[in-house]
Amino acid sequence: MFIKKVFLKEIVSKITSAVKHALIGSDTTASKSHLFVMESDSEEVAVGVNVNSYDGPLSYNYEPPRRERGQAELRGRVNGQMREIELWCEENRWRIGQVSWCLCGRCEAMLSAVESVCCREVDAYWSLVQNLDPPEDITSLTLHPGFEASCLNPFVLQIAYMDFRQEHGPLQASRPEQFRYTAYRQVVRWAYGILGRNIRKAIPSCVVSAIRRQFAEEGRGEGGRKEKPVCLGAKCRMREW
């Protein structure tokens, strides 16, 4: 009887031990399973980090921003345009001081080659005459009815100058100089439309002469002081000879 009890205790002890081992194994498995999930999560996080981490040089990573590139391209175009004007002036210095090149009969001798050009030589200006409806027998842009209305009328120029002043500030110039400068801008806008910044266009001699006569400095004769823009664009300044 005693042996049976001892034997039963051993069996119970073994069963208890087995149950404990089973529970511990279950916990361990669960723990391992939990660790695996965490490792899997951490791997996912690690993958996310790797996506945003440095992975070698990137395309265009060291290129200047778009705006800087645009400004550099604009400067390149402006410099190229100015160089073309300089080359043209060098080749046409013979025009200075005489009017054999004039086709409209209303140009005057100028002191620079860039101004020594006729309205009929520049398509943008002469097309204003050619596109008149109904057509008129006009030989010069200065005889176009729209020229006097938009470029020589002081009331129209006052309004145009107000618009200029609002955007760029007032000109440090006399009243006639303001009128002349605004008239130059008007004729360029009329011929070319809206220009980009620093894009300059020459103004024909006949047009410049008509504007100078209309808005001469008081007591200084026709044209007053000789101003020398005379390549005007969106932003220009008036210089004096």
In short:
The protein is built from seven helices and two strands. It is mainly alpha-helical and 241 residues long. It has a domain at 75-232.
Lateral arrangement of strands in the main beta sheet? 1-2
Average pLDDT score: 75
Q: What is the element string, with H for helices and E for strands?
A: HHHHHHEHE
- Which percent range describes the beta-strand content? under 5%
Low-confidence stretches: 26-53, 233-241
Tell how many strands the DSSP assignment holds. Answer: 2
Radius of gyration, in angstroms, nearest whole number: 42 Å
| Count of helix runs | 7
Shape: elongated
Proportion of residues in helical segments: 55-70%
How far the N terminus sits from the C terminus, by CA atoms, comes to 137 Å
Main sheet properties = 2 strands, antiparallel
User: Which structural category fits the helices and strands?
Assistant: mainly alpha
Pfam families: P2RX7_C
Organism: Cyprinus carpio (Common carp)
Protein name: P2X purinoreceptor 7 intracellular domain-containing protein
Domain P2X purinoreceptor 7 intracellular: 173-218
